[in-house]
Amino acid sequence: MADENQTPQGNVEPYVEAQAGGGGMGAFSVLKDVEVEITLEIGRKRMKIGEVLRLNAGQTIELNKAAGEPIDIYVNGQLLGRGEAVVVGDRYGVRITELLSPEQLTGQL
What is the 3-state secondary structure (H, E, C) of the chain? Predict the structure, then answer.
């Protein structure tokens, strides 16, 4: 019988430790210095090119998400989880409220 901490994709224990706030890197410690791009998406809007060309400074573009809905967090273009917008001093940030499970993450590939 397979170990309960194993999946066909490998060991999920580092993910579980990260979820629990343990900070353990486990098998991922070799990757700790690799840079990734984190993107926070508050919403999207589809527009025709003609509509985009008619935009002026000061105009507002309405997005597909309501105020207060979670912000999507992407790492290198893959959805990692969701969070809420916060202000830290004079900068914006995101408080992580949900991380996808290993099964959800591998289902994106």
Answer: CCCCCEECCEECHHHHHHHCCCCCCHHHHHHCCCCCCEEEECCCCCCCHHHHHCCCCCCCCCCCCCCCCCEEEEECCEEEEEEEEEEECCEEEEEEEEECCHHHHHHCC
